[in-house]
Each structure stands twice: as C-alpha cells, then as structure tokens.
Amino acid sequence: MSVIGFSFPTPTRFGAGALRELPSHLAKLGVRRPLIVTDAGLARTAAFTSLVAVLGPGGRDRDWFVFDGVHPNPIEDDVRIPASIMREKGCDGVIAIGGGSPLDAGKAARLLAANPWADLARFYDVPHDWSGLAPLVAIPTTAGTGSEVGRSSVITLDATRRKAVLFHPALLAKLVILDPELTTGLPPKLTAATGADALTHCIESYTCPAFHPMCDGIALEGISLVVDALPRAVRDGNDLDARGRMLVAAAMGAVAFQKDLGVVHSMAHPLSTLFGMHHGLANALCLAAGMRFCAARKPGLYRRVGIACGLTLQQASPEQADAATIGFVTTFLAGIGMSGRLRDHGADPGRIDDLVAQAMEDPCHKTNAVPVTASDFRALYLEVL
C-alpha cells in the first residue's frame, strides 16, 4: 500500500452576517492596505456595497483599493493588472470577492505581485518564491466553483488561448467567509448554473479512482446538500438556509476534488474557452452523457451517488442503479432549467475538432473513472451538441 497525504484547507467563517467580522480578521492577518479583486458586475451589487460598508472609508493609516476588471473566464491581464496595482499602492493583502473568476484571479495576482518577472505559461517550468505572498481573504458570492477553498487558479493564457491550471498550496486563502446574505442577489439561472457546477464536482470527485476516503465522504454529503438546497435556492433567492447549504456544498465539492475530476470537466473547459459558455452550464449539459459513458464501462459506479440523491438502490443491480441515478440527475437538472443541447447555448458543431483537441489536452480526464480517447470525446460531443 502506498503512502497518501491528506490535507484540508483554510479557516472558514460561515453564517449570515459573517462578513461583518472581516475588519477584525484583517487586523489579525496584519492587512492594512488590501486590494479588492472582483468583476464589474459584482461591483454594482448589494454584496459589494456591503463589503465597502464593512471596510469603511479608509484613511491615512488604513486604506483599500479596487480592481474590478476580471473577465468571466480570467485571462492573464486579470492577474497582471491587479498585481501591478498591489506593487504601486503597497497593498499587503487581497480580498477576492465574487464567483470563481475573481477568486482565481485574486489568488494568482499575489504570485505576480511578489514575482513580477513570472511567466504564467511556464508556471511549472520555472521555480517561484512562494514565501512572500500577501494574505488572501476569499469571499464567494456564488455557490459553485468552491475556488475559495482551492489551492489552484484557472487562467486562460495569452500564448495558447487555452485554460491553464496554476497549482500550489501557497495559493490557499488565509480566511474564507461564507455569508449567505451575499448570495441572495444571484439570479435564478446563475444560481442553477453554479449549483450544477458544485454537483458535478461532487459526482466526479467521488467516482475518481484515486484513494481518498475522506474526500469520498465529503463528496457524497455534498451531493445530498445540493439535491436538498439547490431547487429551493433557485425558487426563492432569499432562502438563507438554502443559500447557506449551497455555499457549504460548493466548498465541500472543491475539498473533494483534491482527488481530481473526470471526463465531464474535460468536456466543459473547452466550451468555456472557445464559446464563452458558463462553466456550470457546460458541466450541466455534459454531465448525464459523461455518466452514461462511465457507467457503460464500469457498471455500478453511481450506486452510492444515487443513494446520496435519496434513491433506494441497495437491492438494484449495478446497471439498474446507474440508470436510476443518471435518470434522477437528468430530471433534477432539467427541473432547475439546466437542459438543452450545446448548440442551443452557442456551441458551434463545426468546431468539434477543436473541442476534441482541447478536451484531450485537459488533465481532468486523466483521473476519470475509466480511460477516455479522442474518439470517445468526439462521440460524447456529438451526443450533446
């Protein structure tokens, strides 16, 4: 038996009104001049207004600054520009607030602030000094990516125009604030899409064959939370219990995918890169097809996933358990508006060769429950296009 390392991420404050604790936590972290990293849409929301009110007007001994230019799928400038602001203003910390994109950009900006010479395209080829990274406080306003508890950042590189995963434990936040009051303004469609992302994380991480029973348990409980809370959050955005459970489920999904992910994510990433499709929506539209593909080659794979969804499958055959689970997931996603074909959401069938090529280069499928070839990806895309 090989030796496997386990680790769990950063300190987290959870609950309605948790944002109001931020100033005391910044003081404990020694942060007096933070840079807020977000996107233009979030900067116009009540969540951002709440953050500004908590931070106060600033002054001579304590001040804060804002970069609100993060794109929906972050590019290198979303990292380089805030890093430059940090150096120019003498910022000693980052507050990343929003969805996964601002959180990812905020994580990586600290690396370039400390290492302005760094080339993100050669992230794994050139050693970096990780000792001087400014503290990060991560505040999600969506419940999907779980980026707040992740030690990676997904950035589209200038050189390749493809997403790259930057990974290092030093990218972890020093503090996560999960405040459901900050998510009540999220529209139903985005609530559904980000929640579908969390569900996909939990399902794919559980079925990833890597040995990590702690993550398996977290993934299964995350599935139960999503099945209970996501429809309620979509129906009533002010349901703080549902919003809070979804924030926890999203964080659990990201903790669980320390194991890694699978074929669905390798299908989804090129859809965002090539067509700007929301990552959660892309996952939702590919999930059932990916599950059918895996179940056909490894019967019984989804029995415990189905039980976590509330199905009674103990006496079912492996094939029956898989079919029931996949049917439930398909109906569940349709019930929150996550249905249709990829072409209905902007994907161009004429670019299937590009989709397949990028999916094959994506690392997620390398930890899929079963092997995936280029011809498999082509068949899967044709099924869902």
Explain what the structure shows.
The structure is a single chain. By secondary structure, the chain is an alpha/beta fold. Helices cover 48% and strands 9% of the residues. The protein has 2 domains: 12-183, Rossmann fold (3-Layer(aba) Sandwich), CATH 3.40.50.1970; 188-384, Dehydroquinate synthase-like, alpha domain. Strands 1-8-5-4-2-3 form a 6-stranded parallel sheet, sandwiched between helices. Strands 6-7 form a two-stranded antiparallel ribbon. The longest helix has 23 residues, at 213-235.
Task: Write out key terms for the chains shown.
alpha/beta, Rossmann fold, Dehydroquinate synthase-like, alpha domain, 2 domains, six-stranded parallel β-sheet, globular
Give the SSE layout.
Elements lengths: L11 E3 L7 H8 L4 E4 L8 H10 L9 E3 L9 H13 L3 E6 L1 H15 L21 E5 L11 E5 L6 E5 L7 E4 L9 H20 L5 H23 L4 H17 L6 H13 L3 H19 L5 H6 L9 H18 L16 H10 L12 H11 L1
Parallel strand pairs: 1-8, 2-3, 2-4, 4-5, 5-8
Antiparallel strand pairs: 6-7
Choose one word for the global shape: globular
- Radius of gyration of CA atoms, rounded to a whole number: 20 Å
Helix content: 40-55%
Q: Assess the beta-strand content as a share of residues.
A: 5-15%
CATH superfamily of the largest domain: Dehydroquinate synthase-like - alpha domain
CATH class division of the largest domain: Mainly Alpha
Architecture of the largest domain, CATH level 2?
Up-down Bundle
How many angstroms separate the termini? 43 Å
The average pLDDT is 92
CATH topology of the largest domain: Dehydroquinate synthase-like, alpha domain
Question: Largest beta sheet, briefly?
Answer: 6 strands, parallel
- Helix/strand order, N-terminal first: EHEHEHEHEEEEHHHHHHHHH
* Number of self-contained structural domains: 2
Q: So how many helices?
A: 13
Oligomeric state as shown: single chain
- In order across it, which strands form the biggest sheet? 1-8-5-4-2-3
- Tally the beta strands: 8
* Low-confidence runs of at least 5 consecutive residues: none
Given the helix and strand composition, which structural class is it? alpha/beta
